[in-house]
Design brief:
By secondary structure, this protein is α/β, with parallel strands linked by helices. It is built from 22 helices and ten strands. α1 packs antiparallel against α13 and α15 packs across α19. The two termini are 43 Å apart.
Length: 658
């Protein structure tokens, strides 16, 4: 089926379907899209064996991998032993055994994350880079042409246009703009959305004529969502571009970033995908600032750890990455899973699976966390994150079917399994708390049996070892907090090295983020547990546009959204009061987080106050990068033009950067 909308090309031609032109006499009309250069993208057979050309892990990656998983295993074994000592003042009852197993699984997940972050800390302390592929430092025009793809679904056109123009100007400043073209690939539904997008991107194409090719199309049917959108581009235009970069609706990348990614592809012919590590920016609400601070301070150690033990068999996050078109077309055609949603149909979280298929075919999937200039936004409120998280939960649980049906490398199985566990672990944690509460109530309501054997002359007193319990608590908290401490140490060392002030602010930010994240964690636990249950009952989440503005939420809306969390919190409090004051103290973070969920959601959706905004400020807040400043300026300009009406060829050109 033909595209419904055509637009202007680099040469300055206008589009079919555009509104009447003013002063446009003599302009040559032609479709906005370039001449198609088709590339086959066959659907892959998931059960097929991996290619004979297997991607071998480097020695360094194997060493890091052994250290991370070995350390996590030892920590988990130590935890299980200490917890067993705490519980085994007599023979373990069945419910105590269940508690021991669930607690060990939950701790093991935390231990793995902490071990990975520790590996990242030592990798960055030893070297400034944890990249698994060499990235050239010089800037020149890449050999292979690169398409910059913006798949959009009811995004604000002014925001996308500003991002594209800022990037185009940056590429022109570097003198490499001739190596890139832009494609806006719209899956927005309805003629009104198409007309609005068409008007803005027509004007953008006119503004960038001679600088960067800007192309636009609106798919008649959004089959397979974002994955189908990208596949459609590959099959129609992929033959003309050795590489393509995918940017989300809230992505921003600098000209240097995309150029160096393309140069790295030139230099690494077996690299199929290079994933940058985007920094979270742009939020003004307290909730957004918490995410941005956590990503900026703890993120480097976490990303570096994942990079060094994954090696060339890494993962893909769906955007802010460069992909070799030949490899993607040959290896990453996604089939439909049998059955209906949520487990059947099109693969929802396609990025993990595409990375696994590339590795299976012998292509390298690398992370380049050292590169700066990659940014993205984040959900501005807790309810917005919950909506997105529900969709991600369904996509990750769908990977259970992929794991069962697909022959993959061991590392790809690890990545997919970790994605599944990242959501199932909330249900495990919730079950652990429920079983723990049952144990506590049981011990407070029933008298223990002091004589386990009729032949014994002396009673067996059920005494819990207080030393073991204290050691267990301290060790658990140390493991939980370790990534935050290591991230803070790395950030403080960076600031010392460059002579940047504000180290006390970082410490204050870590403390504030830790307290608020502890209170918010139980809300996520309940929400993700409900999502897991819904998905197992085959409830589909659908596909809705994301809200990206910081407009906050009303207290009444927060009350409706978090009524269940509040009731659960009150219920836990009542149960703890029946069990004794000690239980209430231990469960205080859970009780407070759930009972205050309405106020927490409403309060964190508001703009952060001066004190918290200062404590949680990131580098991008205090030293705004040029590409972000320019994008912000152009966003205002494009918004004003949209409010004035549809831009047409006679309009004044947009202001260019000095």
């Amino acid at each position: 089926m033909k595209d419904r909308i055509y637009m202007k090309t680099r040469s300055g031609a206008s589009s079919k379907g555009a509104r009447r032109q003013r002063g446009g006499a003599g302009r040559r009309r032609m479709p906005m899209l370039p001449v198609e250069q088709a590339m086959a993208m066959p659907v892959q057979r998931l059960e097929a064996r991996p290619a004979e050309l297997r991607l071998e892990a480097g020695r360094a990656a194997i060493v890091w991998r052994s250290g991370v998983f070995g350390a996590a295993g030892l920590l988990t074994a130590g935890f299980a032993y200490e917890l067993y000592r705490v519980l085994s003042f007599g023979a373990l009852t069945p419910i105590e055994t269940v508690f021991l197993i669930l607690s060990t699984i939950a701790f093991g997940w935390v231990a793995l994350g902490s071990a990975s972050a520790t590996a990242g800390y030592f990798a960055l302390a030893r070297s400034a880079s944890a990249d698994t592929v060499e990235v050239p430092a010089e800037i020149r025009t890449p050999v292979g042409r690169t398409a910059l793809l913006f798949p959009v679904y009811h995004e604000e056109p002014a925001r996308i246009a500003a991002t594209i123009q800022a990037l185009a100007e940056d590429l022109e400043r570097l003198g490499v703009n001739r190596g890139f073209d832009v494609f806006v690939l719209s899956d927005s539904r309805g003629p009104e959305a198409g007309e609005e997008e068409l008007a803005v991107f027509q004007a953008l194409a006119r503004s960038l004529a001679g600088t960067l090719g800007v192309y636009y199309r609106q798919r008649p049917e959004n089959t397979a969502k974002k994955a189908g959108n990208i596949a459609d581009w590959v099959e129609r235009f992929g033959g003309g571009y050795p590489y393509f970069v995918i940017l989300d609706g809230d992505s921003v990348m600098s000209g240097e970033m995309v150029t160096r990614l393309a140069l790295a592809m030139d230099a690494a012919p077996r690299a199929g995908l290079l994933q940058s590590v985007p920094r979270l920016v742009g939020g003004r609400s307290l909730f957004a600032r918490l995410q941005q601070f956590a990503g900026a301070v703890y993120g480097p150690a976490v990303a570096a750890g994942l990079s060094v033990w994954s090696g060339g068999q890494g993962n893909y996050w769906g955007h802010n990455a460069i992909i070799r078109t030949e490899a993607f077309a040959a290896a990453a055609g996604l089939p439909e899973l049998p059955g209906r949603a949520p487990f059947g149909g099109h693969i929802r979280s396609h990025d993990f699976v595409e990375a696994a298929l590339l590795v299976k075919a012998g292509w390298g999937v690398h992370m380049v966390p050292s590169l700066e200039g990659s940014y993205e936004g984040c959900p501005p409120t807790l309810p917005d994150l919950i909506v997105r998280d529900r969709r991600w939960c369904q996509g990750n649980l769908q990977h259970i079917g992929v794991l069962v049906r697909t022959r993959l490398t061991a590392m790809s199985r690890v990545h997919l399994t970790m994605g599944v566990l990242s959501y199932l672990i909330s249900a495990v944690w919730a079950a652990t708390l429920v079983v723990g509460m049952v144990l506590t109530l049981q011990s407070s309501q029933f008298l223990p049996s002091y004589f386990h054997d009729g032949k014994t002359l002396f009673p067996i007193w059920p005494v819990i070892d207080p030393g073991a319990a204290l050691r267990l608590f301290v060790a658990t908290m140390a493991v939980v907090m370790l990534p935050k401490v290591l991230g803070a140490l790395l950030e403080l060392e960076r600031m010392r090295r460059v002579g940047e002030r504000g180290r006390a602010r970082i410490v204050a930010g870590v403390l504030a983020e830790a307290v608020l994240s502890i209170l918010l964690a139980p809300i996520f636990m309940v929400t993700q547990t409900i999502a897991v249950v819904q998905i197992l009952m085959r409830h589909d989440s659908g596909w809705k546009p994301q809200r990206r503005d910081d407009s906050g939420i009303l207290i009444g809306d927060a009350a409706r959204l978090h009524a269940l969390h509040t009731l659960i919190g009150i219920g836990v409090l009542v149960a703890c009061l029946k069990a004794g004051q000690g239980s209430t103290a231990w469960m205080a973070p859970i009780i407070l987080g759930l009972s205050l969920s309405i106020l927490l959601s409403w309060y964190t959706a508001r703009p952060a106050g001066r004190v918290l905004a200062h404590a949680l400020a990131t580098r991008e807040d205090t030293q705004r990068p040029a590409i972000l400043r320019r994008t912000d300026e152009l966003h205002v300009v494009w918004q004003e033009r949209a409010e004035r009406g549809t831009p047409e060829p006679g309009d004044e050109p947009l202001p260019r950067a000095a």
